[in-house]
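Researcher: Quick test of sequence recovery. Tokens follow.
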């Protein structure tokens, strides 16, 4: 076993929940706000893991642990040992990244370049942000090695980046799919992937029936395809979205060299009856306008509450006993006339779902951009008929 460090995405709690879902038997320890430690068998396993995740940006292999603060000479010697041992081209090209060390002066990586040159190597230092080189650069130029220094309450760790998120694949699914309706708001593919991973942790079925009843452009179904799932069902009130989802699914399946026969149809969420019972319902419902009029927020939430309650009631007829629902539920942040911030939530609805048989199996995860008025909260429910009131 080797120790690795996962550099988490912009919502670390969400990334950690995903890691736990994908690696239920692996101990996961937070090193600092942005980095989690795990043990894996090999670099190949780490690379495969990164291709499965939506919420981890880089994976770093452990090289050395300094219990007390290392001086620049220690860092320089350990880094140069790695760079010379693992070079794949005559010229050593490297970047240097630091995390959890904001209170310390920046390590002078140019001194490392000089040191390598004094040893007779041709060396090139790729300057970049302190947090590290962009994933795209490391992906396209795999000969560039990135040394990483991580500060934590356990001391300082020196590591090397061995896997980066495949930014090309993410851009492809985000930008190149044939159908998109950006006005309606599409789920970022990485968030959809994380939701699918959270749901998959709740089933042993190799091909669970996965249903998105507000499928929009099919983002969630596409991420299920990327994870090798083929028993897919989608529906939407908007027939153009239904047509578009069919087109997107066919386009994406082709890229994975598979043909799929998903069940995708039109209809109101409270009326659609899929041809089989559902194991995993994963969805981002209609969330209302992204910038609602503050005065209207209580009415908007009342409307959403009615829509969602009807949906959950109907789903109890189409879900298998023990099924899982991973769903985005909005909260809305508004400033009142005095400039005070107020957060409106649908907590009353969530509490009332217990009587319909739905229990939350973990704390909700908040996922939002800083200025967002409508925030996404990701809830995971388990549906059990015996819990029904
Ligand atoms: C936020 S979008 C979902 C976007 C989707 N996750 C994606 O990434 O493309 C919500 C979708 O719900 C659909 N919708 C709204 N009201 C509905 C209803 N009562 N029943 C079914 N679908 C509905 C809309 O047409 C829209 O496509």
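Model:
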């Amino acid at each position: 076993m080797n120790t690795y460090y996962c550099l988490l995405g912009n919502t670390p709690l969400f990334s950690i929940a995903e890691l736990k879902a994908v690696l239920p038997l692996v101990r996961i320890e937070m090193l600092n706000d942005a980095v989690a430690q795990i043990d894996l068998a090999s670099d190949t396993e780490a690379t495969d893991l990164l291709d499965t995740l939506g919420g981890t940006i880089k994976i770093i292999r452990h090289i050395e642990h300094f219990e007390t603060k290392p001086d620049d000479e220690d860092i320089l010697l350990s880094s140069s040992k790695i760079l010379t041992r693992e070079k794949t081209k005559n010229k050593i090209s490297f970047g240097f990244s630091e995390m959890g060390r904001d209170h310390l002066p920046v390590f002078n990586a140019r001194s490392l370049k000089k040191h390598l040159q004094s040893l007779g190597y041709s060396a090139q230092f790729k300057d970049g942000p302190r947090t590290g080189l962009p994933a795209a650069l490391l992906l396209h130029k795999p000969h560039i090695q990135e040394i990483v220094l991580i500060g934590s309450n356990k001391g300082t760790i020196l590591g090397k980046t061995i896997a980066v998120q495949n930014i090309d694949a993410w851009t492809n699914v985000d930008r190149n799919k044939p159908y998109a309706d950006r006005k309606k708001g599409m789920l970022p593919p990485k968030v959809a992937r994380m939701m699918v991973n959270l749901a998959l942790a709740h089933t042993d079925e190799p091909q669970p029936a996965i249903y998105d009843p507000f499928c929009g452009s099919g983002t969630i179904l596409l991420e299920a395809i990327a994870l090798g799932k083929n028993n897919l069902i989608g529906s939407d009130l908007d027939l153009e979205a239904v047509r578009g989802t069919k087109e997107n699914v066919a386009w994406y399946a082709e890229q994975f060299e598979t043909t799929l026969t998903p069940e995708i149809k039109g209809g109101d969420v409270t009326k659609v009856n899929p041809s089989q019972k559902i194991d995993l319902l994963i969805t981002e419902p209609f969330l209302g306008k992204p910038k609602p009029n503050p005065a209207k927020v209580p009415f908007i939430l009342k409307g959403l509450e009615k829509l969602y309650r009807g949906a959950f009631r109907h789903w109890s007829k189409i879900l298998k006993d023990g099924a899982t629902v991973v769903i985005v539920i909005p909260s809305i942040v508004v400033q009142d006339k005095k400039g005070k911030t107020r957060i409106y939530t649908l907590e009353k609805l969530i509490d009332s779902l217990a009587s319909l048989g739905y229990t939350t199996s973990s704390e909700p995860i908040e996922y939002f951009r800083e200025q967002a008025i409508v925030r996404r909260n990701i809830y995971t429910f388990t549906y059990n008929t015996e819990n029904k009131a």
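Residues 172-387 form a domain with the Rossmann fold fold (CATH 3.40.50.150).
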